C-alpha cells in the first residue's frame, strides 16, 4: 500500500492559499492571464494518470480509516468526513472518468512555464479557484473569474467546455492531498499507540521497569 505504516509525509500540501473575495478573484483572473505563457506543442496526457493515482490513494485512505474506526480510537473531523462521504467521492471519480476522454487534455492549450508547466491552462485555472476558495466553488465568483481572465486573454471553446470537469479534477486532487495528510497522521498515532501498548505490557510484567530517558 502507498500509505503503509512506514509512509512518510511526502505528499503535496493541500490546495490552500489566501482566501479571496469575489472582487479579489476577478483581479486574480486578470493577473493570471497576464502571467500565463502558452505552448501549443502536444505533450503526454498527465491528467488521466493523475486521476488514477488520486483514486488509488483515496481508496487506500478510506480503507485505512475504516480499519481504524474503533470506539476507543479518535478519528479527526476531516477523517470522519472522508469516511461518511466516501461514496460521494467515488461517484465524483467515476464521473470524472466518464467526462474526460482519453487524450482530450492533450488537445488543450498548455502552460509553457511556471509550477504547472505542461498542464492544460484551464486546469491551472481550476486549481486557482479551489485554492483561493478553500475548496468552495461559487457560480458567481467563478463566472467573474473566468470573465476577468478573458478580458485579457480569450479561452478557447474547448477550454470553456472543460471548466466543469477540470474543477472536478482539482477538487479530487485536493481530497487526495488532504487524505494523504490524514493517513500520515493516523499512521503516526497508530505507531505511538503500538509503542505505548508495548511499554504498558512490559510494565505490567515487571513493575520495577521504567521507560528509558534521554540525558
How would you sum up this structure, described in words?
It is built from seven helices and two strands; from the N terminus they run H-E-H-H-H-E-H-H-H. Helix 2 packs antiparallel against helix 4 (86-99) and helix 4 runs antiparallel to helix 7. A two-stranded antiparallel ribbon has the order 1-2. It is mainly α. The two termini are 38 Å apart.
Looking at this protein, list some descriptive labels.
globular; two-stranded antiparallel ribbon; mainly alpha; Aminoglycoside 3'-phosphotransferase, Chain: A, domain 2
Major sheet attributes: 2 strands, antiparallel
Query: CATH first level: which class?
Result: Alpha Beta
The CATH architecture can be given as Alpha-Beta Complex
Number of separate strands: 2
The best one-word shape is: globular
**Mean pLDDT score:** 81
Structural class: mainly alpha
Q: Roughly how many Å apart are the termini?
A: 38 Å
Low-pLDDT residue spans? 1-10, 188-199
Nutshell version of this structure?
The protein is an all-alpha fold.
Task: List strands and helices in order, with pairings.
Blueprint: H1 22-35, E1 38-39, H2 47-67, H3 77-84, H4 86-99, E2 110-111, H5 121-132, H6 139-150, H7 157-205
Antiparallel strand pairs: 1-2
Amino acid at each position: 500500500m502507498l500509505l503503509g505504516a512506514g509512509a512518510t509525509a511526502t505528499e503535496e500540501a493541500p490546495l490552500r492559499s489566501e482566501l479571496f473575495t469575489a472582487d479579489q478573484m476577478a483581479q486574480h483572473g486578470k493577473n493570471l492571464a497576464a502571467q500565463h505563457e502558452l505552448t501549443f506543442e502536444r505533450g503526454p496526457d498527465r491528467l488521466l494518470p493523475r486521476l488514477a493515482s488520486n483514486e488509488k490513494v483515496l481508496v487506500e485512505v478510506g480503507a485505512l480509516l475504516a480499519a481504524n474506526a474503533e470506539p476507543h480510537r479518535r478519528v479527526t473531523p476531516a477523517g470522519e468526513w472522508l469516511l461518511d462521504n466516501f461514496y460521494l467521492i467515488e461517484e465524483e471519480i467515476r464521473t470524472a472518468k466518464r467526462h474526460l476522454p482519453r487524450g482530450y487534455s492533450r488537445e488543450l492549450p498548455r502552460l509553457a512555464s511556471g509550477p504547472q508547466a505542461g498542464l492544460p491552462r484551464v486546469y491551472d485555472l481550476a486549481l486557482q479557484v479551489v485554492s483561493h476558495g478553500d475548496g468552495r466553488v461559487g457560480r458567481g465568483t467563478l463566472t467573474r473569474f473566468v470573465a476577468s481572465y478573458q478580458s485579457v486573454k480569450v479561452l478557447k471553446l474547448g477550454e470553456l467546455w472543460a471548466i466543469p470537469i477540470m474543477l472536478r479534477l482539482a477538487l479530487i486532487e485536493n481530497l487526495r492531498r488532504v487524505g494523504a495528510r490524514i493517513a500520515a497522521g493516523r499512521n503516526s498515532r497508530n505507531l505511538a499507540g503500538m509503542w505505548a501498548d508495548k511499554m504498558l505490557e512490559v510494565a505490567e510484567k515487571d513493575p520495577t521497569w521504567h521507560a528509558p530517558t534521554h540525558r
